[in-house]
Amino acid sequence: MEDKVILEAKNLKKYYRRGSEIVKALNGVDFKIKEGEIVSIVGPSGSGKTTLMNLIGCLDRATSGSLKIGSINITSLDEVDLVKIRRGNIGFVFQRFYLIPTLTVRENLELPLIFAKKKIIAKEILDILKEVRLEDKAEIPVKYLSGGDKQRTGIARALVNNPKILIADEPTGRLEARVGMQILELFLRLSKKGLAVFIATHDLELAQATQRIIHLQDGRIITKEKSDLYY
Amino acid sequence: MKFFILAYKNLRRRKFRSFLTIGGVAVAVAVLVSLLGFNAGYQEALTSDVDKMGYHVVVTAKGCPYEAATMILNGEAGLRFIDEDIYKQITGDSGIDKITPFLASLAYDPQKMDGKGGFTNFLGIEKSYLQLKPDAEFLAGEWFSGDDVNEVILGYDAAESEQKSVGDKIFIPGKDIAFTIVGVFKRTATQEDGVIFLPLKTAQKIFDAEGKLTGIGIKLKQIEKISEFEERLYPIASIQVISMSQVKGTILNLVNSAKILIMSVAFIAIFVAIIGVVNTILMSVFERTQEIGIMKAIGASKFDIFRLIWIETFIVCTLGGILGSIIAILGGNLVELLVRKVMPYAPGGKLLLITPDLLAYSFLGVIIVGIISGLLPALKAASMRPIEVIRSGE
Hints:
The complex is a heterodimer.
Chain A: E1 5-18, E2 21-34, E3 38-42, H1 49-56, E4 64-69, E5 72-73, H2 79-89, E6 90-94, H3 105-115, H4 122-131, H5 147-159, E7 165-169, H6 177-192, E8 196-200, H7 204-209, E9 212-217, E10 220-223
Chain B: H1 2-13, H2 15-53, E1 57-61, H3 65-74, E2 82-83, H4 84-91, E3 96-109, E4 118-125, H5 128-132, E5 138-141, E6 151-154, H6 156-162, E7 169-171, E8 178-185, E9 195-199, H7 200-206, E10 212-213, E11 215-220, H8 226-233, E12 239-243, H9 244-287, H10 289-297, H11 302-330, H12 332-342, H13 356-382, H14 386-392
Parallel strand pairs in B: 4-9, 6-8
Antiparallel strand pairs in B: 1-11, 1-12, 2-10, 3-4, 3-11, 5-8, 6-9, 7-8
Helix pairs in contact in B: 1-11, 2-9, 2-11, 2-13, 3-9, 9-11, 9-13, 10-14, 11-13
């Protein structure tokens, strides 16, 4: 597969005001992520991980610099266009799963399609459920699922819009080590199919298993080498 | 449609709270529908009662004209007497089209209401009474055979409650005389349905009021010349002339004053219901901040979130509106019973007129209220910033 850059940040900055103080959440970040690459982002609390995820996920706009998804510089887009980019390119996976408990697995998967005004095709939903090995639990309300199955549902939901980038925020944080490994294997399998996976984590074992680590501190990338990782 | 299902499922997650909120809206709607129904019904029933009376004016002994009018409308006794000579004196007045004298009286019947006891209204009348009462038609039987015979004609309800028909005998409580029922009037949907009618002379004899009347009902040739008619009667010191249209206006004014107060209560109920709806939806928005953040993260636009929360409010108000309308329709009889107990004068016929139009307007009003009260929670939800709210719970 040709190494095509799917995500590129250049001198990316995000400042915001907290009272009279200016907080430099991201203070000039540069990186590139290619299709099929699986990258982890690590750093202490307040280092800028959330802000970076916000920007990549098209949930917020940068103060300056550029952030490209494919060939589109999203820093200059308005709210409406950001929603469109998010629907077509980004999938989110969360530590606490954040599924709608009263809905079934299938209904949770249909939500992004409803918001994107896309046609719901049962076979496509089933294919994704097969991918995450939940095909026999499609009609079960998610509140009855185990933690691992909830996270699989969360990943399936993130995949349903056929995104190019998967953003996972502490995806194994609430799972047993064995289940966490299964989720990681799932990410690796998805990345081999061309999906760029971007994992924010404190779990060093998980970070070590990814192809590359971006280490953030005080809004800057301080190292990109796995061997330099000290916590 | 998917948004409706999603909103509905969200409401089902907090069943009890949603039910209470819907109940609050329902009570407000039921109160509003009942009051508006009462507004229309009472006016119509009173107009019908007064019109069916057939009189333009009633001449009675001096006293409170409205008390007297209410008593006459109710078919009650208790009126002071006027001399029968006055009837003879004014009969020849050029302004009069039709005229009839009457004597109203009450008798306590210990057997009434299944032995609990109650009063029966009696009205002594002459044949001229029928000319003033176009609705007084015979269901069975006919007019009295003479002017002072011991015969009675029963109003429709009186016949029903006494379980008597033409040919049967009836006793007036305390009077040891048997009266033959010679006729039963058709239902007129006025208070007179409950009255027992006697020939005027018989009534005067039985109730120890010979040569006396309690009133004279008059239909004028020209209603607009009522004040001239009053002036002509002014020299007769012991009487007063009561115009029925004035009575109707005064009763309606009294009812309107009470209505303003009741409507204020209804609007407070609606206001409280709105606050309840806004509070419930706002609470559920704040409880679901993370979920709303997730929805945005998985592709929902601000408008999608706004729409979802707004639909929830809409569903609450719509279900409340439907439930409230059902309560108003089913509980209408109960409200009517209560109103009849507290009102100084309640006309016959239906007091609560709940029409499809009234229901449609009330329902529309609730929907508009729902639309407005959904705005704040929906705007709050739509303006939430996704990742912050997601991470705030971690």
